[in-house]
Structures are given as C-alpha cells and as structure tokens.
Specification:
The protein contains 7 helices and 6 strands. By secondary structure, it is of the alpha+beta class. The longest helix is centred in the middle third of the chain and has 13 residues. Bound molecules: zinc ion.
C-alpha cells in the first residue's frame, strides 16, 4: 500500500543511491582512485575522485586545467574551472602529479611523476614524453661549487616541418 510506495525513503534505498556504481572492468575503479587519494593524504571527496578518475584512468597523461575542465564537461562531470585548478594544485602538492610550467602562465600537470623530459608540440598544443633512450646520453653541466643537482627540466618545442 502507501507504505510500499514510500520505500525509496527507507535507509536501505538511500544507501543504494549513494553507493557509486563500480565498473565491471578491474583496474581503475572508484575504489582504486579513492585508495590512491587516501594514500597521498587527501580526503577522497566526490570532486577529487571525479578528477582522479579522469586523470589516472587512461595511463600517463599531460593536461592543463582548461583541457581537463573541457574533458569533465564533455563527460557530464559538473564542476567549476576554479575547482579543477584547485584540485590539480592539491594533487601536485600531494605528489600525485608533477607540475610543468611552460612559457607564459600555462601550467601542465603530468601523471608520470618520475624524472623525464618533454616535447611540446606547438601545432597541436600538446606535451609528450621524450623517450628516455634519446636523452640518457645528454651531457649535463656540473653543479656550481658546493651545490648538487636537484632536478633537470627540459622542454623541446617542436612544430611540423612539412612545407606549408
Ligand atoms: Zn611527461
């Protein structure tokens, strides 16, 4: 009777609505992203999980806040650009991402936090990794007296060499 129709308000149903659907494919589930955030000391809020899912679900990638914002919108994930900016910054503070500053004010975020270098493709506005074997033989200048090398950043900007 009317009791039956009120079932959606029972605690069990509310719980069901709040439980995220776990994808059938193992690998990048809600639980994986949540664990990753927790291990990094970040509270797994819904927005962080949504952004983590976009970032870590597709292998190593390089994104800007604007690109990720567009991706979130296309995927019907609703959040402001400011939230995307803040979340990416928090992720990089927690060492989940590496920040790469290009010329101007554009900051790229890299899910591969290990040491490696980049090509910037000017035609398509993309950042890609330079294969390690191409750079391992590069000579480095010695650090100044009394100092040690903390890290080396290199971005090689390239464009299509095809005749126009
Ligand atoms: Zn990279």
């Amino acid at each position: 009777m009317s009791v039956e129709r009120n079932m959606p308000n029972s605690p069990g149903s509310v719980q069901n609505r709040l439980t995220p659907r776990t994808p059938a494919v193992p690998g990048c589930s809600f639980a994986n992203v949540r664990d990753r955030l927790q291990r990094a000391g970040l509270r797994p809020t819904r927005q962080r999980i949504a952004i983590g899912w976009l970032l870590f679900g597709k292998g190593d990638r390089h994104v800007t806040a604007e690109k990720l914002f567009d991706e979130a919108r296309a995927g019907k994930v609703h959040m402001s650009l400011a939230t995307v900016y803040n979340t990416l910054h928090q992720f990089s503070e927690a060492s989940l991402l590496r920040e790469i500053a290009l010329y101007g004010s554009t900051v790229w975020y890299d899910t591969n936090t290990g040491p490696h270098f980049h090509f910037y493709l000017a035609d398509s506005d993309e950042l890609i990794d330079i294969p390690q074997e191409l750079v391992s033989a590069l000579p480095l200048p010695p650090a100044p007296e009394g100092m040690e090398i903390l890290g080396v950043d290199m971005i090689v900007r390239v464009r299509s060499s095809a005749p126009v």
